[in-house]
Amino acid sequence: MTDILIRTEGKAGRITLNRPKALNALSYAMCLAIEEALDRWAKDDSVALVVLDAEGDRAFCAGGDIQEMYDTGTAGDYDYGRRFWRDEYRMNAKIAEYPKPIVSFLHGFTMGGGVGLGGHCSHRIVCESTQIAMPECSIGFVPDVGGSYILAKAPGRLGEYLGLTATRMGPGDAIHAGFADAYVPEAEWDGLKSDLCSTGDVAAIPQHPAPDSPLADQQAEIDRLMGTEDLQGMLNQLRGDDSEFAAKTLSKLERIAPLSLAVTIEMLHRLRGPSLNIRKALELEYRVSHRVMEHGDFLEGIRAAIIDKDRTPKWRHTLDKVPAVDVSFMLRPLGKEALQFEREDTGMNIGFIGLGNMGAPMAANLAKAGHTVVGFDVAGTAAEGCAQATSAVEAATNADVVITMLPNGNILRSVADEIVPAMKSGAVLLDCSTVDVESARAVAEQAQSAGLGALDAPVSGGIGGAAGGTLTFMVGGSGDAFDIAKPLFDIMGQKAVHCGPAGNGQAAKICNNMILGVTMIATCEAFALADKLGLDRQAMFDVVSTSSGYSWTMNAYCPAPGVGPQSPADNGYKPGFAADLMLKDLRLAQQAAESADADTPMGAAAMALYQTFVENEDGAGQDFSAMLPRFETRGRD
Question: How far apart are CA 381 and CA 360, in angstroms?
Answer without folding.
Answer: 8
